[in-house]
Amino acid sequence: MIIITTHKGSDFDALASLVAAGLLYPDAKPVLPTSINANLKAFLSIHKDLFDLYSPKDITFEHVKTLVVVDTHSWNRLEGMEPLKDRQDLEIIVWDHHSEGDIETNQKNIRETGATVTMLVQEIEKQRKLITPIQATLFLMGLYEDTGNLTFPSTLPEDAYAAGFLLDRKADLHILSTFLRQAYGKKQKDLLFHMIQKAERREVSGFVISIVKMEIEGRIQNLAMVLQMYREIVNVDAAFGIFKDVERNKCMIIGRSNIDEINIGLLMRSLGGGGHPGAGSALLKAVNPDTIEEMLFELISGNQHSSVMLSDIMSYPVVTVSEDTKIEEVTMILRDLGCTGVPVIDKEERIVGVISRRDFKKVRKSKHMKAPVKAFMSRKVIAIQHDKSAMEAAKLMIRHDIGRIPVMKDDKIIGIITRSDAMMYFYDLLPD
Asked: In sequence order, which ranges of 48-115 are alpha helices (DSSP H)?
């Protein structure tokens, strides 16, 4: 038996991904958790018979040979799947757009798209699978919900393309607007009112941040929506809500950011949660909200891309060549170093150019190999000061399509940052 399942508290992206995966694995049984959000519950109250869905209690787990997990890859977010967790003979396939998770498998389809269903729609299009108008509508609902109608910072071109593909497949925007309305009732209004009353703004690492701590009683739907409205009203770069559930002694931390430099998903991962660059959350038990607030400020000021200086991640010492070095010598140096380029300096050790393998395309005759490097080097040097951030270096690389940038201090080159250095940092591959 093959089963497909998704996370507890299922939303439209979870259900859309579940149904989309069913098209890619036609022999599988889609298993929807019993815990689903209010909007999805309203949708299924009318449309449930259109989808052949199972609950965890319907499954005989000893018969399961393959588990397909969508929109998460964390065991603790799955409902009723405990009998499968330690099965050594179980094949597991993951489709997810979250970066964090503890489900181990070689069959991971993980990309940071705006919605998981985007990835599955791409595969459906690739395999030329037929989809019905109601399926297209559901898929678009999942995509719109997780991207804020394509407005969240985590939205990518793939999401917009997938939305166009689904509209071409007759996705019904009327149905979408009916069921995708955010539930915003008296509880949400009262909570937002009290949050605004307590609003404080603080500058951290050059960014304006607001952290609000609130006590709540019982479950309040759409806390994330309330926090997003709060961020917009108080007009800050990033806002965090620490919501303490007095009855259960738990704190729900939700973050929303409007700028690339503050990566909410990275922050929440440090607290044991997760999310996207612009949005994320974490759930902590028996923790003082004041302690969480201190942790957040510390993380923002110390662990964000914007606050890590290039001197922390650059490569040094730097191998340079003089402007009179022959091309054939540079070729040997690059080969021995295993790199694609080096800075060129003059007699006063000032940087005057960069020579890379790309420049070698100008070398057309054998006699050119004896020529000095200054005849072929790139003289337009893009450099960066040592006190700048990794994010600024990455933006320069993208803007100028270059793979290395000299790091300068007092007009001297003290290091070099390469694409590899940047990627090692941004993808959390640096050693502790």
From this structure: none
Rg (CA), the chain: 26
pLDDT digits (tens, 9 = 90+) for 13-68: 999 999 999 999 999 999 999 988 877 887 887 787 888 899 999 999 999 999 99
CA dist., res. 377 & res. 395, Å (int): 23
For residue range 275-297, list pLDDT tens digits in order.
Answer: 777 888 888 887 888 888 888 88
* 35 and 64 housed in the same domain: yes
Interatomic CA distance for residues 182 and 269, integer angstroms: 26
What does the block give as tokens for 213?
């701590």
CA angle centred on 10, ends 5 and 14, rounded to 5°: 60
Residue 419: how many CB atoms within 10 A of its CB?
Answer: 15
Q: By C-alpha distance, which of 17, 26, 13 is closest to 127?
A: 26
- Sign, CA torsion 226/229/233/238: positive
Per-residue pLDDT reduced to its tens digit, 87-112: 989 999 999 998 778 898 999 999 88
User: Are 294 and 319 contained in the same domain?
Assistant: no
Range of 150's domain? 2-179
Domain-terminating residue out of 283, 307, 331:
307
Look-up: residue for tokens 């964390």? Answer: 74
pLDDT at 112: 83
Strand arrangement, sheet containing 321-322? 321-322, 341-345, 351-356
Tell me 88's DSSP state: T
- Number of domains present in the structure of the chain: 3
**Alpha-carbon span 315 to 45, nearest angstrom:** 58
Collapsing DSSP to helix, strand or coil, 260 comes out as coil
Task: From 179, 195, 218, give the residue that closes a domain.
Answer: 179
* pLDDT at res. 308: 54
Which residues, in sequence order, are bridge partners of residue 241? 212, 254
Pairing between β-strand 250-257 and β-strand 279-285 as defined by DSSP bridges:
antiparallel
Please report which confidence band the pLDDT of residue 429 belongs to, taking 50, 70 and 90 as the band edges. Answer: very low
In this structure, is residue 431 part of a structural domain? no
Cα separations in angstroms, 276 against 138, 279, 392: 22, 5, 20
What tokens appear for 386 in the block? Answer: 């040592």
* Closest CA relative to residue 232, chosen from 253, 257, 211, 252: 257
pTM: 0.52
Please tell me the distance from the alpha carbon of residue 188 to that of residue 347, in angstroms, as a whole number: 68
Q: Do 269 and 348 reside in the same domain of the chain? A: no
Interatomic CA distance for residues 310 and 385, integer angstroms: 8
Residues 119, 203, single domain; the answer is: no
Tokens 């399926």, residue? 135
